[in-house]
Design brief:
heterodimer, A: alpha+beta, ten-stranded mixed β-sheet, two-stranded antiparallel ribbon, 54% helix, B: alpha/beta, Rossmann fold, six-stranded mixed β-sheet, four-stranded antiparallel β-sheet, 7 helices, binds adenosine-5'-diphosphate, binds magnesium ion
Chain lengths: 383, 236
Amino acid sequence: MNPLRCIPYVIKQVTRHRVRSLLTVLGIAIAMFLFTAVQAMNHGVTVATTETANDTTLVVYREDRYCPATSLLPQDYQRRIEDVEGVVSVTPMKVVVSNCRTSLDVVTFRGVPKAEFIDGLGSDLALLDGSIEEWMSRTDAALLGETLANRRGLRPGQRFDAAGITAYVAGIVRSDDAQDQNVAYTALEFVQLAGRDQLGIVTQFNVRVADASMLDRVSKDIDEVFRTAQEPTATFSEKAFIGRVADDIIELVGFARWLGLGCLAAVLALVANSIVLGVQSRVSEHAVLQTLGFSGRLVAGLIVAEGVILSVIGGLVGGAAALAVARWGSFAMSVEGTSIPIVADGGLLVSGLLVCGLIGVLAGLVPAWQASRREIAACFRMA
Amino acid sequence: MTLIECRGLTREYRKGDNIIRPLDDLDLDVPRGDFLALMGPSGSGKTTLLNLIAGIDSPTRGSLVIDGTNLANLSRNKLAAWRSENVGYVFQLYNLVPVLTAYENVELPLLLHPLDRRQRHERVRTALERVGISDRSDHFPRQLSGGQEQRVAIARAIVTDPAILVADEPTGDLDKPSAHAVMSLLKELNEELGKTIIMVTHDPKTTDWATRTLHLDKGRLAETGASLTHEQEALA
Ligand SMILES: Nc1ncnc2c1ncn2[C@@H]1O[C@H](COP(=O)(O)OP(=O)(O)O)[C@@H](O)[C@H]1O
Ligand SMILES: [Mg+2]
């Protein structure tokens, strides 16, 4: 016999015990919403801080400084960094943030020499809307990362204020780099002039090296060049730099993992509760099924399937809601000019559903086994 | 021709140090096509015997051979498969699945058989027509009267076309007209479809529908229905 033929029966058990199913699914959905949110933050930390073979960017910062307001380096370091062996390009960058503390809605300006930027660091950016020419030609023009633009609802042609700077949106760009997604690129002098007289001063240099294997050596060489300079440097790979600056966010997200596990435990408890109560109130019904010829194994399978259906539906609702909120809000956790994105994609939803399915099986296993082992005749006497 | 053969059939339950023996060394032959009524005081082992014959309980001792198969030798899973082919059970309290419609309740046992949707539909419709309740096929059990529920339950018991029907006080919860309808339906199934029926009853009137009546007392057969009938005739 084909057990799949019984699936409609299980679905009817779910849909026709409407109140029970709704409450259970609602509880699971809330827990899975939280779980998905935690996973999205976790995923963001991984994306922002785990180095891959494609990562060839170094960040040169003022030694012993941790925020863009205090990292002040002479712009003319650029020439000396370019002389270091293995360096492909150097982009001086002046970073100004709207909020120095950790926040979900920080606007980060990165002032860069436009022409160099477009040919070097910015060559990977994909223009979604607006025009690069306009960005090149207007002094107050900004290229906005997609996440920032979505969050602030900005379109090309609009102006916006942040960090005491009024900028014009010339284009919206997408990048594989989580940092680019959440910043506004403008002309270097534009940002320098917006602060106190800081022409000739930059926050950092972003350095491209020829190969990922060179990152360590080149960063040591750069710091060696400026070891005795008035403003000594500390050079990190971009991902390590983010890990250093955003360490409190990363720590919090690490802790949130426990919340995620707690959510899964809650889902397990909810499904198990629902199934145990369902099985208890249906002792004679399951005995009837067995009297009709359903084997104990099949009855157990139906009970497990019910747990899986409940928890997968709950996971779908909660996970989809979390995805929708993350997409709609376009949040990124920002601190000191760096961002940890909140990465909620379809893969996250699928893995959440798999976890839910597994929990459904676990939750149903014991009650299903018990129901399948009961003496049929004794069940009718209990009722 | 004997369809059901019980030899030394014994069922014991252990309750602490006590052993309860609702069925004690019972011998019984039921020929094919029989309509057997079982009577006896409460606790005399009627349901226990019915459950053994229906294959939802196993004897402690003795043999129970039905149509050449010794049920005592079957594993739990084999026994389940055997039930789905050979026996339909009609309960006193109907035991329909509350979240399923009449139609879906009757379809339930067919899910175990290699039939497609259309074949199942055909069988369910025939069974519902047979018990005269086709017009209620979309109703849920709570929307049916007791008599209607019992007729749906009978449809569910016969839809797989088993040779044996067992019924445990099938009219015990019904008013007179409904009880009459159910009894005449069972009689029909016995006479027209040749079902072998074993029915437990408390109501002496319902035994009139049966071909014979047996009395159980303390787990043993007291006397045959035939002789009782003769005694009653003699008394009359
Ligand atoms: N699972 C069981 N455990 C203990 N005693 C049982 C069990 N099943 C039946 N009995 C006992 O067996 C006796 C006969 O029960 P039963 O067959 O239901 O009688 P009847 O149907 O004739 O009223 C009763 O005394 C009952 O308490
Ligand atoms: Mg009884």
